[in-house]
Amino acid sequence: MTDIKILLSEDEIPTQWYNVIADMPNPPAPVLGPDGNPVSPDALMAIFPMGIIEQEISSERWIPIPEEVRDIYRQWRPSPLFRARRLEQLLDTPAKIYYKYEGGSPAGSHKPNSAIAQAYYNKQAGAQRLATETGAGQWGSALALAGRMFGLEVLVYMVNISYQQKPFRRSMMETWGATVVASPSDQTESGRKIRKEDPDSDGSLGIAISEAVESAATRDDTNYALGSVLNHVLIHQSIIGLESKKQFEKVADYPDIIYASCGGGSNFAGVAFPFFADKASGKEVRLIAVEPSSCPTLTKGHYAYDFGDTAGLTPLTKMYTLGHDFVPPGIHAGGLRYHGDSALVSQLYKEGLVEAMAVGQLRTFEAGTTFARAEGIIPAPESSHAIASCIDEALACKQSGQAKTLFFNLSGHGHFDMAAYDQYASGQLEDFDYPEESIKSALESLPKVG
Amino acid sequence: MTDIKILLSEDEIPTQWYNVIADMPNPPAPVLGPDGNPVSPDALMAIFPMGIIEQEISSERWIPIPEEVRDIYRQWRPSPLFRARRLEQLLDTPAKIYYKYEGGSPAGSHKPNSAIAQAYYNKQAGAQRLATETGAGQWGSALALAGRMFGLEVLVYMVNISYQQKPFRRSMMETWGATVVASPSDQTESGRKIRKEDPDSDGSLGIAISEAVESAATRDDTNYALGSVLNHVLIHQSIIGLESKKQFEKVADYPDIIYASCGGGSNFAGVAFPFFADKASGKEVRLIAVEPSSCPTLTKGHYAYDFGDTAGLTPLTKMYTLGHDFVPPGIHAGGLRYHGDSALVSQLYKEGLVEAMAVGQLRTFEAGTTFARAEGIIPAPESSHAIASCIDEALACKQSGQAKTLFFNLSGHGHFDMAAYDQYASGQLEDFDYPEESIKSALESLPKVG
Questions:
Q1: Which of B67, B74, B75, B105 should we substitute to test contact with A (largest number of A Cβ atoms within 10 Å)?
Q2: What is the ipTM of this complex?
Q3: Is residue A54 domain-resident?
């Protein structure tokens, strides 16, 4: 009988991360300061350690993974690649469906892949404390775990709507010893400003980033850690795709289409970019970023220079954006509620080398429930975006009779999202479509640079 | 570098379960009917399929695992055995600590090991529906998952205090398609009787069992499934210890002491009994059942014939019991709130072949938090009972300088228990000690048979 889990041994954990910049047809657009000139790496030293800055600006294809980082990865990595045979049976599709499962990490998602690395480089550089933001709580949990592993204090600004909807993510972070505050908070200028305008603000990733950056910039012992978007985060997450490639080799298969949910881009890039290396060498493989229709950054945003945060504290990045002051509706896939997207993902999308599609909230919960009933694992609502698109293609294969090989990353489990499943099951969930009029106002909100 | 996860391949999943009866020095005490005479297997046919009854009365050492059951086990089995190197470092102990991790199952605990098997035999026998009870929600989740895998309806009576404390366990069961009602309910005679006396009853496993048994006995299409206590459940759970033995062989080690939390006994028996086989052949190994001091069945109960449920619908079993009408305090380790214990565990304990100890609630949460901060995984409060005792021994080893090999089963994760961790962290949790005067009243409540 064929194994349904394609496993690797601990010594097969990659020893190098992959950097997609080495294989991009064009160099990344420069990151700009408020004056419109490229930002120097030194300017980042107030909030990042040098080990991280070097990775952020590197164009080397391979970046060594420190042994101390691999050593912690070994606690749950390599993660399994599953053949979704029960889902295939249920859909009665000739397509082969595979998924990589990142929910087995102690934090329950792919986020520790970068959190562990970031905590390591910060510890090396002598930082005592990390400030960060979190949407659904997945990144905050990951950094709380990582900080604990390296003896660093962790301060998490948690998007208010998630703080309310997911109190147990907060408890999880606190169990690992982190301090968690709802954002916008009264602890920062950025937070106080928003609260003055809207005391009941749901918050957003953009606002929480402003608070965490401000907190790091104003304290010498504190650095900032970001869970997505930036190049170094995408580099760390490449471990997902690198392992997946080894796993596909073991079963002598290769995906035709790869699906991954996409908010800031770390999950999509993590699984897809190592396959982009093959695509750049002429291999046929489609890479599809799946985003919520309520926050359709790639599919409806503008490709322009914008701030990464709401208060405008970050440098300007050329990316797909809905405007840095866009506050997405309080959908349950909190990890995907971000106005912008990774510069690298954006550039490759602009150049037609990766694809994107948007899925509504109800469809994602329908797909997540279907998946749970077939495969057992209850997926995070973020991951269900990829599942929905993959199921649609598998059903199209049924119509066409094509036996495509489909692959998605199951980025995390939904154990902290059961209230949302409950609302879905009882008919209380809504779809939010991005209002067309917002497209124009987003354009007007963009900073005048670049 | 040595691997920290000791893994087995899917083809190393055992092909036979182990039955401890074959190695017990004395045959099990007979199960009695209300008339004091041994119950015939036929009497169980109203609520169990023949495949299960055969296992319940079997004295064969090895019971074949059906290929259909192994095939579903493969979704998450073999489960990893971890060397707890970070915990060892934190405790600064010369002891070696290992733990088997059962929280990687889709339901998050060891319970699917039996649920999958029970669903299989029921499906084979033509049942359409399974009724069961659940305490913390772990067993109910497992049966909801298993029912879905074999196309059976599942009805779960969930202990009211857990239904209130753990709404997300309910959502999890419903996501897999099960129907969940708070127990005591108004759907059964047994439930209505309790509610009449105490409309706000916290419920107990004993009450919920009465409801589920009544529900199965009164409908032809419905069978009953129990998550612990009975011999067949212990047989199914032996897969934990059988895999562990193979894993210890791979690292050429063997435990001196095995710890497992003990409510009805399925977790303890599952990991410990396969090692009992070695003990019966002269090998030195200590097997310790760890129970809550608020519900100290083995350490303070009476060894006597008693009912397995509160209403007295079950046959009489000779076991350690706190009296079938004992309602334990609403501690957070809901899976351990049971007045009785497995007949086999009880008999071996009575004969001095296995040991038992009791731990208070606060100590278990302290140990669970220590474990989470060292190893990453946040344990279920049930599992933390074993962790607490293991940590105590590791610290004793530090004093004595002994390098013992300690092993415990991490039966599940704590993702659905974060409210309890939150209460612990904010100082709102209490210890409940079993009141001494209850010992006498328990004795008086015992049925006059046997």
A1: B75
A2: 0.95
A3: no
